[in-house]
Q: What sequence folds into this?
């Protein structure tokens, strides 16, 4: 077994505190995927049933808007891609393109389902880790949205905040 791949997953937050035997099982089920520079891993709108971890290389997250493509984020070794697909079963929310030759580890929903049947505690921990990753990204997105809104209103405009609930005394 490739110790480098095992160590990479063990250092990735999504796999934090997951036992080594479970990591080995996931790696054995997941042959490496090679994506050439300029090729897409998937497109916005595609059906998603897997997450990917970048073993080496670089990828970009691209979002389409009004016929144009916009860079959302750069991804590198150890970054996890596509985890939302394991929660919501909606189409991919962005495209992923390789910005250099890249190798990935693919973990499918089916691979995780095998862990569910084998070791419910480890499966639950994996789900919690995935949830934490999605939540972390949501918090970052909320913060970026707030900062952009504040910057847009700095030039003399005033932003009014309306309380959601009015507390009575």
A:
């Amino acid at each position: 077994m490739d110790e480098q791949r095992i160590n990479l997953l063990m250092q990735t937050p999504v796999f934090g505190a997951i036992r080594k035997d479970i990591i080995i099982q996931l790696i054995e089920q997941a042959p490496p995927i090679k994506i050439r520079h300029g090729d897409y891993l998937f497109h916005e709108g595609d059906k998603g049933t897997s997450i990917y971890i970048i073993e080496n290389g670089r990828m970009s997250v691209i979002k389409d808007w009004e016929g144009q493509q916009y860079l959302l984020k750069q991804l590198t070794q150890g970054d996890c891609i596509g985890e939302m697909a394991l929660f919501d079963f909606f189409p991919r929310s962005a495209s992923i393109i390789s910005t250099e030759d890249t190798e990935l580890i693919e973990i499918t929903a089916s691979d995780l389902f095998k862990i569910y049947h084998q070791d419910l505690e480890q499966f639950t921990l994996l789900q919690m880790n995935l949830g934490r990753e999605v939540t972390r990204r949501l918090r970052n997105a909320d913060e970026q949205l707030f900062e952009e809104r504040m910057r847009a209103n700095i030039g003399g405009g005033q932003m009014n905040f309306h309380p959601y609930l009015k507390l009575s005394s």
Summary: The mean pLDDT is 90. Strands lie at 32-35, 40-42, 50-56, 59-65, 68-75, 80-81, 95-98, 102-108.
